[in-house]
């Protein structure tokens, strides 16, 4: 039997415990595939005295990171502890000491991915981060391996389980955003501070990671146009439903010629679109390739064992490379300079929900603003609202640029017949005729 490859595991929480379980439960198959045992030599935790699963040997625990990154017998650091700046420092030290990295940390990768990969190249080390996007779905490997020969033109996906859970419950049970968020926090689907999920930041980190790979362009979180679902009204979902759409928080990254666009925003998709049927905390990523056409990847976006599966598969990949003596050769620097589309180059259909005075001339005043900006309308609903001479008007435009839509919004805000602009969202996909 070949000598074992030793691992320093940073973190023994939800994902870390899953990693230990998979390494133990699937030991025989793993050894068969990689050709040697994989041993966890040290585990970094915050509190070594905390009560833990009995399956873990307490002699492995330490709160001293030096015992992992300075140990010459440790070959790979598996980082599943979270954190950004401090964690990057740990991984930087590990790479300088020629240790390979496997991480599930999208927060850190979205900020420090580029320098980390650069440092790995300089030290002939591997860095793998499959679990950082969509948990158990092997989307990174699909882009870098399975679809490597294709030219990816668009990625569109539900990459945040918490917001998909909230939108599903609001729609299916007719409940308010606040009510479902409170339930999600109670059930552990949402954090005590849910901002990163509901404001779209978590999804935007994943979109920036996927875009860097898919378009071979160095982009980061600040390049993504982000709008979350905080405070979304049930009425938006109900009107969308009436028009044949479901609202999802979609991460969208698309390439046109040599420029790309990236956004995270609530988006209407037709009921017939596969993304419309992704419910609860599940994730799905749609990839459009020049040659392959449309492909969709679906599965659990988080959770102990799905995420740990991605981490251990990455670890096995690194171990195979160590044994073959080919580490540090698989990461490719981005091929293109960053080139982002301007707002007048980003096109889609748009949904608007407005409140306006219910009197003659209102409709004409509103539709004239769209016509004045050369934007035509695809669908319109007008409903009287209560007895106070107010009407709710819901519109879906044909294709328009973000710049045109921003201008129309400004004009509508200043119209005397408008009492409020409740919402406006992007619309994707073609409806069935
Ligand atoms: N949970 C998921 O489903 C999921 C899915 C995809 C990606 N991820 C990512 O995986 C990572 C871990 O998530 P998790 O849910 O497993 O977290 P978690 O349950 O909170 O566990 C974190 C672990 O790391 C240890 N730790 C944290 N900060 C530390 C520090 N500064 N020094 C030493 N030890 C430290 C903790 O020690 P103690 O045990 O002593 O507190 C704990 O064992 C995060 O980056 C997360 O974004 C998680």
From TrEMBL:
Catalytic reaction equation(s): L-homoserine + NADP(+) = L-aspartate 4-semialdehyde + NADPH + H(+)
GO terms of molecular function: homoserine dehydrogenase activity
ACT domain mapped to chain residues: 351-426
Reported cofactor(s): a metal cation
Pathway: Amino-acid biosynthesis; L-methionine biosynthesis via de novo pathway; L-homoserine from L-aspartate: step 3/3; Amino-acid biosynthesis; L-threonine biosynthesis; L-threonine from L-aspartate: step 3/5
Keyword Transport: no
Keyword vocabulary terms for this entry: Amino-acid biosynthesis, Methionine biosynthesis, NADP, Oxidoreductase, Threonine biosynthesis
EC numbers for this chain: 1.1.1.3
One Pfam assignment: ACT
Entry-linked NCBIfam families: PRK06349.1
Family statement: Belongs to the homoserine dehydrogenase family.
Protein name (Swiss-Prot/TrEMBL): Homoserine dehydrogenase
């Amino acid at each position: 039997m070949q000598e074992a490859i030793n691992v320093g595991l940073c973190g023994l929480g939800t994902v870390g415990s899953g990693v230990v379980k998979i390494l133990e439960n699937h030991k025989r198959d793993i050894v068969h595939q990689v050709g040697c045992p994989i041993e966890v030599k040290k585990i970094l935790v915050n509190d070594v005295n905390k009560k833990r699963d009995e399956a873990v040997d307490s002699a492995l625990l330490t709160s001293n990171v030096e015992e992992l990154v300075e140990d010459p017998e440790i070959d790979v650091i598996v980082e599943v502890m979270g954190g950004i700046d401090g964690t990057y420092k740990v991984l930087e030290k590990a790479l300088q000491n020629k240790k390979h990295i496997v991480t599930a940390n999208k927060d850190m990768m979205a900020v420090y991915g580029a320098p980390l990969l650069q440092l790995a190249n300089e030290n002939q080390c591997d860095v793998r981060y499959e679990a950082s996007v969509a948990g158990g779905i092997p989307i990174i490997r699909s882009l870098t391996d399975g679809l490597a020969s294709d030219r990816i033109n668009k990625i569109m996906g539900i990459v945040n389980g918490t917001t998909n859970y909230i939108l599903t419950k609001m729609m299916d049970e007719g409940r308010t955003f606040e009510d479902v968020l409170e339930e999600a926090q109670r059930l552990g689907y949402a954090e005590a501070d849910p901002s990163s999920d509901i404001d779209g930041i978590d999804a935007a980190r994943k979109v920036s990671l996927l875009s860097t790979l898919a378009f071979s362009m160095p982009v980061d979180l600040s390049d993504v146009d982000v709008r979350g679902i905080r405070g979304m009204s049930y009425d938006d979902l109900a009107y969308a439903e009436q028009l044949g759409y479901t609202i999802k928080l979609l991460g969208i990254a698309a390439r046109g010629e040599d420029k790309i666009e990236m956004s995270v925003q609530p988006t209407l998709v037709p009921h017939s679109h596969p993304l419309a049927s992704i419910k609860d905390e599940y994730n799905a990523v749609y990839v459009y390739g020049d040659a392959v056409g449309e492909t969709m990847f679906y599965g659990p976006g988080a959770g102990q064992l799905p995420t740990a599966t991605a981490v251990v598969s990455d670890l096995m990949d690194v171990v195979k490379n160590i044994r073959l003596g080919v580490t540090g050769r698989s990461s490719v620097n981005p091929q293109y300079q960053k080139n982002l589309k301007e707002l007048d180059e980003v096109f889609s259909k748009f949904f608007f929900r407005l409140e306006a005075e219910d009197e003659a001339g209102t409709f004409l005043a509103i539709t004239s603003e769209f016509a004045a900006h050369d934007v035509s309308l695809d669908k319109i609903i007008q409903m009287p609202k209560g007895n106070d001479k107010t009407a709710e008007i819901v519109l879906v435009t044909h294709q328009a640029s973000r710049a045109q839509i921003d201008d129309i919004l400004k004009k509508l805000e200043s119209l005397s017949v408008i009492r409020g602009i409740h919402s406006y969202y992007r619309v994707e996909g073609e409806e069935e005729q």
